[in-house]
Specification:
The protein has 237 residues and is of the alpha/beta class. The chain has two domains: 154 residues, Rossmann fold (3-Layer(aba) Sandwich), CATH 3.40.50; 73 residues, no CATH class. The strands form two sheets. Strands 6-7-8-3-9-10 form a six-stranded mixed β-sheet, sandwiched between helices. Strands 2-1-4-5 form a four-stranded antiparallel β-sheet, with helices on one face. A hairpin with a 2-residue loop joins strand 4 and strand 5. The longest helix is centred in the C-terminal third of the chain and has 18 residues. It is globular, with a radius of gyration of 18 Å. The structure holds adenosine-5'-diphosphate and magnesium ion (MG). Magnesium ion (MG) binds next to helix 1.
Length: 237
C-alpha cells in the first residue's frame, strides 16, 4: 500500500512551471529523500504533498484515498521549523497537540494528563527531557530539530514530510538527529518523505532517492546505489 501518491501534479505560477507532470508514490513505512539543485522545486513539492499549496492540476492520494484537506494523517516540518523561540521546549511540543484539544484548554494551558504524558514520553524518546524548561532560542540546531520532531509526532501523523532537516547541521549533529528520528519512525511505522542536501545523509537514512530537476522527477535510485557521481550529477548540471 502506498502511503502517499502524487498523480500528474502540475503547478504553474505566473506562467512558470514549478512542478511539471509529476507522478510518484511512497510505499507505507518507507523513507524517501528528494534531492535536486536549488530551485528544482523540492520545497514546493513537499508543500503541495502536505496540502499547503494547491496544485494547478493532478491528484494526491493518502493510503489510496483522495486527499482531504482536513485530515490529520500528515505532519509537515518546514525548513525554518516554525518553533517559538521565547517559549520553552515543553510548550513548543504541546503546540503540536493544540489542534486536537478544545480551545479553552489551549488558552488556559489546562492540558489533559494523557497529552502531558505523551509530550514527556516523546521528549524522552528524542532525548530532550533535560531541556523541557529551556527556551527554544537557547538550543543548538540539532536540539531545535528534535523539538520540531516531537511537536509533529504529538499530532500522531502516519506520514511526515520534512524539509532540509540537516541543512543547518554539521555531519555529527545531522547523524544524531537522523538516528533518533529513524528509530522512532520505525517504532511508530511512520512513512517519511524528506529533502536533504547531503548525499551521504540521504543514502544512510532513506530507502530510495528521487532526483528532482526543473520540477520533474528525473530518477528514482535505491539509496545503496548512491555514489559520489550522483552528487556530482546533481550539483554540477
Ligand atoms: N509562491 C511562489 N511564487 C513564485 N515562485 C515560486 C513560489 N514558490 C516557489 N517558487 C519558485 O519555484 C521554484 C522552486 O522553488 P523551491 O520549491 O523552493 O525549490 P527548492 O526547494 O528545490 O530549492 C523556484 O524557481 C522558486 O522561485
Ligand atoms: Mg527548498
Amino acid at each position: 500500500m502506498d502511503a502517499i501518491s502524487l498523480n500528474s501534479i502540475r503547478l504553474t505560477i505566473n506562467e512558470k512551471k514549478i512542478l511539471d507532470n509529476l507522478t510518484m508514490s511512497i510505499p507505507q513505512g518507507s523513507a524517501v529523500t528528494i534531492m535536486g539543485p536549488n530551485g528544482a522545486g523540492k520545497t514546493t513539492l513537499l508543500r503541495v504533498a502536505s496540502g499547503l499549496v494547491r496544485p494547478t492540476s493532478g491528484e494526491i492520494y493518502l493510503f489510496g484515498k483522495k486527499f482531504d484537506k482536513n485530515q490529520r494523517l500528515l505532519g509537515y516540518i518546514p525548513q525554518n521549523l516554525g518553533l517559538v523561540g521565547e517559549l520553552d521546549v515543553f510548550t513548543n511540543v504541546m503546540i503540536g497537540a493544540l489542534r486536537r484539544m478544545p480551545r479553552w484548554r489551549a488558552i488556559s494551558g489546562t492540558y489533559t494528563k494523557d497529552t502531558v504524558s505523551e509530550a514527556y514520553s516523546l521528549m524522552y524518546d528524542l532525548k530532550i527531557s533535560h531541556l523541557k524548561d529551556t527556551k527554544v532560542k537557547k538550543l543548538s540546531g540539532g536540539e531545535k530539530q528534535r523539538v520540531a520532531i516531537a511537536r509533529t509526532l504529538i499530532q500522531k501523523p502516519s506520514i511526515i514530510l520534512a524539509d532540509e532537516m540537516t541543512a543547518s547541521l554539521d555531519f555529527k549533529a545531522a547523524v544524531t538527529v537522523m538516528d533518533i528520528f529513524t528509530e522512532i519512525k520505525e517504532k511508530m511505522g511512520i512513512t517519511l518523505l524528506m529533502t536533504h542536501h547531503n548525499p551521504e545523509i540521504a543514502k544512510m537514512y532513506s530507502d530510495n532517492v528521487l532526483i528532482l530537476i526543473n520540477g520533474k522527477i528525473e530518477k528514482n535510485i535505491p539509496s545503496k546505489e548512491i555514489t559520489k557521481e550522483t552528487a556530482e550529477y546533481l550539483y554540477e548540471t
